[in-house]
Design a protein that fits this description.
CATH architecture: Up-down Bundle
Helix content: over 70%
Shape: globular
Structural class: mainly alpha
Number of helices: 8
Oligomer: single chain
Number of domains: 1
Order of helices and strands: HHHHHHHH
Largest sheet: none
Length: about 200
């Protein structure tokens, strides 16, 4: 929901940094994998109660996630790069709730519900992109240049990262925060299904 606004703020500095890195031979795919490795460090850090360090790992992961795309645009976008990026994003998003489940057994139920909602949003997002390609729909470009159709929703990357930040700042409130995020994720998935239906010719 807030992604288009934030893209206008963060894209210029990311693009300049990406151009500098690309000129020095940086690999977008290497950045993607390195960012995932850093992001996954948040799992043991959260599990052992090091929430400040976990938050730092999450923030670094997101910065690197922005840089890999910027480097790719300057070196030449490749289909596999977009594929690898989305796979690593989904792996990172799924990993963070696991850390909170390990940190406190009382978080386990809500972490499981949150992971189920992530599956719904991820599948609705990716399946909507496939549907758009089959229909020849064009991305509006509001969320920056993407390697595939990007369907909007109440919960997108910005909102998810804000939730992760709140998880780390207020770990005792994880059950309530996770339940709220899960509800909004389910809503987002349902809205994408409706959008996919309305965007096409569905006489039945």
């Amino acid at each position: 929901m807030f992604d288009p606004l934030l893209r206008r703020l963060v894209d210029p500095p990311l693009d300049r940094t990406g151009a500098w890195l690309a000129a020095r031979g940086a690999s977008a795919n290497a950045l993607t994998l390195g960012g995932l490795a850093i992001g996954l460090l948040s799992v043991p850090l959260v599990a052992y109660g090091s929430y400040g360090a976990a938050l730092l790992a999450i923030v670094i992961n997101r910065v690197v996630d922005g840089l890999d795309g910027a480097v790719a645009r300057h070196r030449g976008v490749q289909p596999f790069g977009g594929y690898l990026d989305i796979v690593c994003d989904m792996a990172f998003y799924a990993a963070v709730p696991v850390g909170f489940a390990l940190a406190d057994q009382h978080n386990a139920v809500w972490a499981s519900v949150l992971l189920a909602s992530f599956i719904c949003t991820a599948s609705s997002f990716l399946a909507r992109a496939v549907l758009a390609q089959q229909r020849g729909e064009v991305d509006d470009g509001k969320r920056g240049r993407k390697s595939f159709f990007f369907s909007a929703g109440i919960i997108e990357g910005s909102e998810t990262i804000l939730a992760f930040v709140l998880f780390c700042l207020f770990p005792s409130a994880f059950p309530w925060l996770a339940a709220t995020l899960a509800l909004l994720c389910f809503w987002t998935a349902a809205a994408r299904v409706v959008d996919g239906f309305r965007a096409g010719d569905n006489p039945g």
